[in-house]
Amino acid sequence: xxxxxxxxxxxxxxxxxxxxxxxxxxxxxxxxxxxxxxxxxxxxxxxxxxxxxxxxxxxxxxxxxxxxxxxxxxxxxxxxxxxxxxxxxxxxxxxxxxxxxxxxxxxxxxxxxxxxxxxxxxxxxxxxxxxxxxxxxxxxxxxxxxxxxxxxxxxxxxxxxxxxxxxxxxxxxxxxxxxxxxxxxxxxxxxxxxxxxxxxxxxxxxxxxxxxxxxxxxxxxxxxxxxxxxxxxxxxxxxxxxxxxxxxxxxxxxxxxxxxxxxxxxxxxxxxxxxxxxxxxxxxxxxxxxxxxxxxxxxxxxxxxxxxxxxxxxxxxxxxxxxxxxxxxx
Length: 330
What we know:
The structure is a single chain. By secondary structure, the protein is an alpha/beta fold. It has 2 domains: 11-161, Rossmann fold (3-Layer(aba) Sandwich), CATH 3.40.50; 169-324, LD-carboxypeptidase A C-terminal domain-like (Glucose Oxidase, domain 1, 3-Layer(bba) Sandwich). The chain contains 11 helices and 16 strands. The chain has helices at 21-24, 26-38, 60-72, 97-102, 114-124, 134-138, 144-157, 208-214, 238-250, 253-256, 277-284; strands at 11-15, 42-45, 78-81, 107-109, 128-130, 162-163, 169-170, 187-188, 192-195, 198-207, 228-232, 259-263, 292-296, 307-309, 312-316, 321-324. The chain has an 8-stranded mixed β-sheet. α11 links the parallel β12 (259-263) and β13 (292-296). α9 packs parallel to α11. The chain is globular.
């Protein structure tokens, strides 16, 4: 089963599964759209663009209807979340999984959108993509927005294999999107090997906190023996991370996976442990003996690279490489 590949002239349908960023920060939303259109892509707003119902864009049913409508729209080639938030999981019972299984389109998002990405994969087996949120990736400055878009296009379009090239620098800024963005940090990038080795397995994962919000439900895919798990968080405390890790640990997840990829975590509060996010995770898991690669650019930092859910990959923690080795539809 093949997706329509993204190319110049493709139309991105933007849905709002949670937070009201297109309402609270319309200038940032417009800046993102202007950038995407300048790259010769088309943009189609979902019906909740610019809407607000207190802290969310609409009721669970309204948010699902927006998504379903864009999914059925023949003009829309791919679907991308405007932003994450806190309540994406509420819309999951109302998604048209049967239609999506028969008429798949690439669905892209990150953070709280993890819930929808994993639900679509769990219900249909169709690959989804942990990657750009429309506003928070493309309202940024260059080169970060350029790198994010390049990664998205390359990952959606690869055929035989694809190896990630991690950027030379990144930004861990927490941006106030209601204000004009004039500069961003450029921190030298350093990918970290916590445990060496090379494995091949199915990629599964997303935002760690959001995974815990659908754990044990029909919307969470089973994590199977040999999987490569990727996780990331933002602005979390050590105690909160431990709570979520414990949930997965006592469920046996870390005993059956073959490798672990840890994304960057901006503003991690070590809470007296004096540990960085990846160090905290590695130590809490008793320093597992499978490959563990950390500080990867699948995270809330910029640029956000796109990583697929459900595609087979090779993780080589010694050479600090991740290579996708299975095409869409196989």
